[in-house]
Structures are given as structure tokens and as C-alpha cells.
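Hi everyone, sorry if this is the wrong subforum. Our group has a chain we'd like a structural model of before ordering constructs, and none of us has done structure prediction before. Sequence below.
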Amino acid sequence: MNSEEAMNRLKEGNARFVTGKLAEKDVGSAREATKGGQTPFVTILTCSDSRVPPELIFDSNIGELFVIRNAGNVVEEVVLGTIEYGVEHLHTPLLVVMGHEKCGAVTAACQGGECPPNIQAIMDKIKPSKEKCGGDVEKTVDDNMNCVIESIRSKSEIVSNLEKEGKLKIVGMKYFFEDGSVKAMQ
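Answer:
Right subforum, don't worry. Here is the predicted structure as C-alpha cells:
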């Protein structure tokens, strides 16, 4: 599968999710088929928000998505290593950085205030986007996705080389609670 086919598959799955007419899945067969290994078609970095489960949003089954989640879909060393594992070792042709409207981590960063050190580390990652966007939550969500993508490109030789070779496409996407849709932001 190439990046265009992977993107189309995500769009088709999300269209089913939006209408509430999910594809029938044989989870038992998928579980059995993946006992020996996984062959996902996309690597996704997204927020930990419990309302944003990629497997449902993209109407996918076991073994189809390689998902990394954390508050604010920020990137640091361990996340970057996980992304590299997905795109290099699992050969996913598509890397999605997916934010969502009304993100709690972004809202907290925009509001400022005191945080415990580990939560502050998340706020510090979002702070440049907050400052650039004047504290507007939705603009900060969008800018944060773009900053994360640029950070991945600049900090991962593996990712940037795969992209330059045409073996990987990176796209920012945003989930909308109102209708369940996901839209490409680039």
C-alpha cells in the first residue's frame, strides 16, 4: 500500500464512522492473523483524549493502525523513537499527526498557570504555538500539529530520509467532535 491508498482508506473509514455505519469486523480472525506480527498501513500520533480513539474514528480492525497517544499529541524522544519504529520497521507509508478541536492540553497551555513538573513538560511543548497564536485554542491546536510535524522532520533523520525518498508522506489531520469527521489540514 502506498501513502495515497492509506490516506483513502482512512477517509473511507472515517466516512463510515461519521454516518455510524461501521464495517462489520471479524476481530477473532484479525487477532489470529496478527499473532505472528503486525502490518499496519499507517502510523498515527494523536492525543490521549478518550473521545478520540483512532481505531473507531477510522473504522479499523486489529493490526491496521500503529497508534501513539499522549496529551496534546506532542513529540519527544520516546515518541520519536516509536514513530521511527512504525515508519522504518513496520514500513507504514503514511504518518498522521492528528489533533482535535477543544483539546484539553492545548486549552490548559493557553490558560497558563502552575502545573506539576511532568504536566508542565507538556505545556512547554505547546507554549511556542500558544505564543504564536495569541492564546487562541483552536489556532494553537492547528499550529501545534504543524510544529510537531516540523519537529519530527528536523529531529528524525529516518523520517526525513523516508519522506525525501518518497516512501513516506506526513500529514496533519484534525478531528471534529460535532460530526466525528477528520479533515486533512495541509
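For your construct planning: Strands lie at 42-46, 65-69, 94-100, 169-175, 182-184. The chain has one domain: 3-184.
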